[in-house]
Amino acid sequence: MNNNFQRDIDLGLSAQNKTLPSKYFYDEIGDALFVEIMKMPEYYLTKAEFDIFKNKSQELIKVLKLNPSTFFELVELGAGDGTKTKQLLKALDDQNYNFEYMPIDISKNALKHLKASVNAELPTVRITPKQGDYFNVLADLKQSEHPIVVLFLGSNIGNLPDERAKEFIQKLSDNLKVGDRVLLGVDLIKSESIVLPAYNDAQGITKRFNLNLLTRINKELDANFDLNSFTHQPEYIEQEGIARSFLVSTKDQTVAIRSLNKTFTFAKNEKIQTETSRKYNDYIMKGILGESSLKIIDRLTDSQNLFADYILEN
Ligand code: AVJ
């Protein structure tokens, strides 16, 4: 991980338009800040998808065409804290659906916490966490006869540029059988007045989340980024439906990254892009489904139409 980290940081900061990969937000501090982000009043995404899971669980079960008597694997890509998923698990469990819940994550720790909370709150739900790569686990499951329902929530796919999202979908489709389903949660394209505050909260939590990338580079790669010389700057272009986060250098400066034996110069107002958060509509969704076998069979939205859970069938 650290070698990849080192290589990715070097590549990103050496480019003409500097970038840092958003996947590196999530160290222990970043995980905790993301939990705070999900609770912020401005961050509507989590609340909107929770609304779907809480108030439309019956509709979700219906559009997923689940059969109470046929065993299925409910696979979740990424463990999270399970707040949304538990609503669906409870509805399925109450109606005696025959299933196993299989969260997949690279973090053993996240899986351990999720298992403990599911066991405590829903003791009759079968949970089998799998630590590892999403696609390796799915490839193994493809050998079994059981129908698979994949959950990929929270607009996590939005961090991928469209070409990468398309590749992700193709790979997902290749690792599923005909008829398997995917519940794909995405943020919807909407006005700047709603999207931008979600990435620029009044308390400055997102700013800390963004700047934590530099703290991480300082700690792990022995660098000397001055956190007071970079500001957090989110942008959103409604026409494209893409929010981007940047760190902007407030002065001409040079930063040394000792483990790379290199220095990097930043001009005043130079931007480092740290995140892409793509928003969707049916047209963009069809685009990323591309030539894969996954087809849209339905879509459920929250009461305010902010967020959508697409139901896809392979
Ligand atoms: C977890 C990728 C969905 O893009 O909205 C939140 C991450 N970044 N605030 C998003 C995030 C800044 C989030 N996703």
UniProtKB/TrEMBL annotation:
Keywords: Methyltransferase, Transferase
Domain Histidine-specific methyltransferase SAM-dependent residues, every copy: 5-313
Keyword Cytoplasm among UniProt keywords: no
Alphabetized Pfam families for the sequence: Methyltransf_33
Superkingdom in the source lineage: Bacteria
Native species: Gelidibacter algens
Molecular function GO terms recorded: methyltransferase activity
CDD domains xrefs: AdoMet_MTases (cd02440)
Name of the protein in its database record: Dimethylhistidine N-methyltransferase
GO biological process terms held by the UniProt record: methylation
